[in-house]
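Input (structure):
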């Protein structure tokens, strides 16, 4: 196979049970990079058995994992998606089309829950608050924090996003706005996490509070 159409970076910590569902439908020509961020459940082995390229990032944090994946990527276009099976890789394809056509510098997903109870109230409220803050600060027409996104790798690295924890998506959005990026948001399906896995962010009020602290650091 020649150059891949798009590299998709999947930051993972203990997602061995979710990865078979996540990687069941990889778009044709796409190359999967799973970043193992301190897993103890064999995530890396499962990822390799499913054909993914595995990168190890020992520094804990969402931003650290995503950045390690970006450095490992070689395609012109890169995508990011969570590894918990709540979102579908195939829904990244129309986002890539927008970026490749030049319609958007970055295309991002806006989660639409497939049923009640999928998105805990505290996580949804926090997301809404931060998205509102970004819209006010940047005039960017977004309503979610880009849990799925596609852009050019060179564009992303040039932004120099420095946060290595949960503040990464917020810093990404604010720097993209300052850089004059066109960001287009499209609806994506948001389903339940894979059975037996737990969210590091929305799985608890403590996790949500930790994210809020990281976001506050970015907004200083």
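Output (sequence):
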């Amino acid at each position: 196979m020649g150059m891949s159409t798009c590299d998709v970076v999947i930051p993972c910590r203990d997602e061995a049970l979710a990865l078979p569902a996540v990687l069941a439908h990889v778009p044709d020509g796409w190359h999967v990079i799973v970043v193992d961020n301190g897993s103890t459940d064999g995530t890396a082995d499962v990822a390799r058995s499913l054909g993914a390229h595995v990168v190890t990032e020992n520094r804990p944090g969402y931003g650290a994992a995503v950045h390690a994946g970006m450095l490992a990527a070689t395609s012109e276009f890169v995508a990011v998606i969570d590894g918990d099976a709540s979102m579908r890789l195939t829904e990244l394809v129309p986002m890539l089309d927008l970026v490749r056509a030049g319609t958007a510098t970055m295309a991002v997903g806006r989660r639409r829950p497939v049923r009640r109870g999928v998105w805990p109230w505290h996580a949804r409220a926090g997301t809404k608050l931060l998205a509102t803050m970004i819209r006010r600060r940047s005039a960017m027409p977004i309503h979610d924090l880009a849990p799925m996104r596609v852009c050019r790798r060179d564009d992303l690295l040039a932004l120099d996003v420095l946060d290595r924890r949960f503040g990464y998506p917020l810093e990404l959005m604010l720097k993209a706005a300052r850089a004059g990026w066109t960001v287009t948001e499209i609806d994506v399906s948001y389903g339940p996490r894979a059975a037996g896995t737990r969210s590091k962010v929305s799985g608890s009020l403590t996790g949500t509070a930790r994210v809020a602290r990281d976001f506050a650091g970015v907004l200083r």
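Notes: The mean pLDDT is 90. The helical segments are 19-22, 43-49, 62-72, 93-100, 121-138, 153-159, 168-178, 205-219.
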